[in-house]
Amino acid sequence: MDKDFGGFKNILIIGLGLIGGSIAVSLKSSGYRGKIYGFDLSSERVKKAVELQAVDEAYTQLEDIPWDEIDLVILATPVKTFEEIAKKIKPFLRKDTVVTDVGSVKGSLVEKIQNILSPVKFIGAHPIAGTEKEGIENAVVGLFKGKKLILTIDREDESTKRLEKFWTDLGAKVEVMDPHTHDFVFASVSHLPHAVAFALVDALIELSKETGIDLFLYPGAGFKDFTRIAASSPTVWKDIFIENKDNVVHTIERFIQSMEKLKEYIQKEDEDNLIRILSESREKRLSLD
Amino acid sequence: MDKDFGGFKNILIIGLGLIGGSIAVSLKSSGYRGKIYGFDLSSERVKKAVELQAVDEAYTQLEDIPWDEIDLVILATPVKTFEEIAKKIKPFLRKDTVVTDVGSVKGSLVEKIQNILSPVKFIGAHPIAGTEKEGIENAVVGLFKGKKLILTIDREDESTKRLEKFWTDLGAKVEVMDPHTHDFVFASVSHLPHAVAFALVDALIELSKETGIDLFLYPGAGFKDFTRIAASSPTVWKDIFIENKDNVVHTIERFIQSMEKLKEYIQKEDEDNLIRILSESREKRLSLD
């Protein structure tokens, strides 16, 4: 089927950061013909987005946006801001405009936004793509190509099919998941690893203080790979951890149990159990490549 | 100064795995003119090493090695085997042959090996290089180029200067450290991150079992980078964890404290402390690039 991006003629991206910017530049390079409008509270980011020709027009005032032209609104701000933004944009929205997001946390937040925007349709979406960088100046053309995109919906309808087509035309592989399962899965495979990376660097800071040896002078290649994600945005991750608190805390507790188990095997020099746990981890990890 | 590899005319590498093999192929490609002999208990590895022309001759029996020709012996087997190997090779060694290693654990092991081999000189060395792969077939030419190499010595003498020249000529950047400091530093920057990676994959296996959701179907890029080192050799890592037990256990405990601290901040939605700890980790991590 031809690329029609779900038939959404003009698009508004709220939040001109790395993800919002990458959607814009990827749309342009994929042959999207509609207009791309941008909104951001920062006039600097708005200026940059226009200069980079990522968007056709960009605004810092909601009143200035040509709302009647807009078929699809994408929230690309931190998840924490969704509720407030939903309340503010509601009076402007056409009833048949579709609103979606690209946030990493869904769960009850999706229902909350749906209730605020109703009867306007809100569809939760989460592209599994990104870098540890920030800002529209680091936007990547084709960021979503070959990457998973999770639509957190209970059932398909015309709007969800259109949004699926939109993301498929951007190269993403769309999967459907209910919002609560989504939050558990991404607590495990994304939020927990980020928490672990932050904690690992913190532990090395503390160990350096304790001994007076600057451990950061000896970063092996493994350590660098391992903690790359510790360079991710503190604000974004603080919000994600808090928004998905219950799942994140549960997975951290489960991880600490694994860490304690490994520590115990090392302390007891329990070679059989060490080999078993290390081999199981190795096999699982190799199966990902 | 010209490359003379410390004047060691012929070399014996004991253990024809990834590191031993990479030393051999890197020597050959760097213009080393002496003979490179290899030893391994496995006749298959010996055969492969000769086929790949990594070594000139290789043996499975210590008696067959032309010991009188050998100026430098490099132990490139798991650290666990050093003591036994030292005892077995001692009767064959010339008094002026230098013995060294490439193991990740030093500490009291270095003194032990020095005592066994005395009056033959043993110098502990640890190249900070490697991959998660195993086997001489994955040997890398230039693996040590630009990488740190730690000589765990108390003071310099003629032999340590020759070994320093050997590694410098292979492209390594040589640093000197006492063996106990070495073990604490590498527990922190290498052994702990490996333990964390293994435990993280283990936690995801357990969380998958608990919920019936195969979490390994959703590996984000961060998770993949993060756990790459969990694919490292279980035998090698079991040995390292046990040989460096006290330091590894201490750093794991320190890391669990950091993890608990982060968990508490998330549970309490303590935004200020979250931002602080995440920002500190981010800055430290960025300073490595």
From TrEMBL, chains A, B:
Pathway noted in the entry: Amino-acid biosynthesis; L-tyrosine biosynthesis; (4-hydroxyphenyl)pyruvate from prephenate (NAD(+) route): step 1/1
Metal-binding recorded as keyword: no
Origin: domain of life: Bacteria
Positions of the Prephenate/arogenate dehydrogenase domain: 9-289
GO BP term, pick one: tyrosine biosynthetic process
PROSITE patterns registered for this protein in UniProt: PDH_ADH (PS51176)
Enzyme Commission number(s) from the entry: 1.3.1.12
Enzyme class, first EC level, given as a word: oxidoreductase
SUPFAM superfamilies assigned to the protein according to its UniProt record, in alphabetical order: 6-phosphogluconate dehydrogenase C-terminal domain-like (SSF48179), NAD(P)-binding Rossmann-fold domains (SSF51735)
A Pfam family hit: PDH_N
GO MF term (any one): prephenate dehydrogenase (NAD+) activity
Reactions catalysed according to its record: prephenate + NAD(+) = 3-(4-hydroxyphenyl)pyruvate + CO2 + NADH
InterPro entries: 6-PGluconate_DH-like_C_sf (IPR008927), NAD(P)-bd_dom_sf (IPR036291), PDH_C (IPR046825), PDH_N (IPR046826), Preph/Arog_dehydrog (IPR050812), Prephen_DH (IPR003099)
The keyword Transmembrane helix appears for this protein: yes
Keywords attached to this entry: Amino-acid biosynthesis, Aromatic amino acid biosynthesis, Membrane, NAD, Oxidoreductase, Transmembrane, Transmembrane helix, Tyrosine biosynthesis
Transmembrane intervals: 6-27
Family: Belongs to the prephenate/arogenate dehydrogenase family.
Protein name listed in UniProt: prephenate dehydrogenase
Organism classification: Bacteria, Pseudomonadati, Aquificota, Aquificia, Aquificales
